[in-house]
Amino acid sequence: MEAAPCTVLFHSTLDDPSEWIPRLSTLLPNETIRAWPDEGDPANIDLAVLWTQPPGGLERYPRLSFVQSLGAGVNQLELDVLPPRLRVARMVDPAMGPMMAEYCLTAVLRYHRRFDAHERSQRAGRWDFIPPVSPRHFPVGVMGVGELGAVTATALAAHGFPVRGWSSRPRSLSGVTCFAGHSELPAFLDGLAALVCLLPLTAQTRGILNAALFDRLPNGAYLINAGRGAHLVEADLLAALASGRLAGATLDVLHEEPPPSDHPFWRHERVLLTPHVAALADPDGAASLVADNIMRFRRSEPVLNEVDRMRGY
Amino acid sequence: MEAAPCTVLFHSTLDDPSEWIPRLSTLLPNETIRAWPDEGDPANIDLAVLWTQPPGGLERYPRLSFVQSLGAGVNQLELDVLPPRLRVARMVDPAMGPMMAEYCLTAVLRYHRRFDAHERSQRAGRWDFIPPVSPRHFPVGVMGVGELGAVTATALAAHGFPVRGWSSRPRSLSGVTCFAGHSELPAFLDGLAALVCLLPLTAQTRGILNAALFDRLPNGAYLINAGRGAHLVEADLLAALASGRLAGATLDVLHEEPPPSDHPFWRHERVLLTPHVAALADPDGAASLVADNIMRFRRSEPVLNEVDRMRGY
Known about the structure:
The structure is a homodimer of 313-residue chains.
Chain A: E1 7-11, H1 17-27, E2 32-35, E3 45-50, E4 66-69, E5 87-89, H2 96-112, H3 115-123, E6 140-143, H4 147-159, E7 163-167, E8 177-180, H5 185-189, E9 194-197, H6 211-214, E10 221-225, H7 234-243, E11 246-251, E12 271-273, H8 283-298
Parallel strand pairs in A: 1-2, 1-3, 3-4, 4-5, 6-7, 6-9, 7-8, 9-10, 10-11, 11-12
Helix pairs in contact in A: 1-8, 2-4
């Protein structure tokens, strides 16, 4: 006997519903797929596919029992305010690893080959010859070596950069020197030319990109944050750029996206903002992953990549 | 019996004599190495290691018989005015291939991941979301698949870009679709997202980056010129950028380096200038290649990478 059809709500400020809804409708012909704000009666929503909570919050959906995140991280869902009975799964789209790795490689190469400096020289009308150095002399550190971080660290190492990885719990990664835990953070940071943050956002990692951490880096290091905006203490970044401790920062994530129009990052010549594009789920492949997880949930089978609500990722 | 010591003149506006002279002196203990302008009596100069001709020209050195170029190309030596008896060798430093490949990968990735657009949006205070596309949908063409071009094309293909190569004579390169000759140029250009020029500069390739060529590219294509400045018709590039045929250009070489202060490239927001840094001979390894070629010449053995003075490369 087949279960009664259920209603799935889709909401994202990043992912395009016109790409997702037709695919999900085809893959889940027995369910009703609704794209916010066309949600119908909130009391009928059983499941949700979300980047963030829709306006008004998830409290509006009394029957909601399962949320599939559209992001590799889930902090943007603000789990703390969700009832513990609500189950949540992260997005693990195999296409996102190479996409994130490519974004970070682009940002690291741009610094390694001094395109940032060349851009500033050009704007100032200066022809400043800076000879290139080998990637062997440009060590890169990757904080967070989960699904996206591991692919990224491996891709950077394959290009020829010496790569270190750091994570809260010990990991092992071929071709990458791995560090773990707070005690190994100074050794991880020592001498890095560029630091890439791909951590999950948790109580432990919130604000981890701060003045104390920057002070462990050599002068002139570069920062790339494609984790979450709240990893970064923005005032500390501004101070580190002003002092020369950091030579530049590429930020794909911010506390507020987009930042307010008077935010100093907009006009900072050593900050490059990208509009949260480092790695997105590709509906071509990811819609079937979402549909599969929804069917698993519906059949009371274990869902894939379920979030540990205590740990937060 | 040992030959009488000879005098080697070093001159470059790009390569640092303080890096090169000590290495060459150590490697060639029997020769006298002089760094221009400290050349002594011009009549005593037998051999030269050059980027360009020193001021006053090579006619000043009546005994000069062999020139080792510091560049992978030799057009900057202005061979046409040199006596045909003067033998010339190109620089083939194995370190230059990866360096050039890295430069081109940096420039291509910057466009592919739209960092150029993000930079413009940021300066305009706009948060323009542009979703990333797979490198599979970003075909890149490499003109010139000699030592540097072959390594570059292969590196771009390894990253995931569909790569085409074009050269005057047919070549074959694993993982790269190769085209040759003028007749195959339209097929090579058709649909390219980015075009990389690494050609040698000859009478046939001078001005090859012109309006007729740009018109074979799709609207919004990108140009990267790391060959020679004279490959490009600069006015045609400005017109192609104005019409939208080209969306941007990264130029490591120019007709005049640096360009005059009133040159429109300086302030063009879709032109990125880099100060001839794509690939330089690394004195650490290349000094021994130069010394080896000088010893070959001195022993009347065949020198490596000798230029065909008729062909021009």
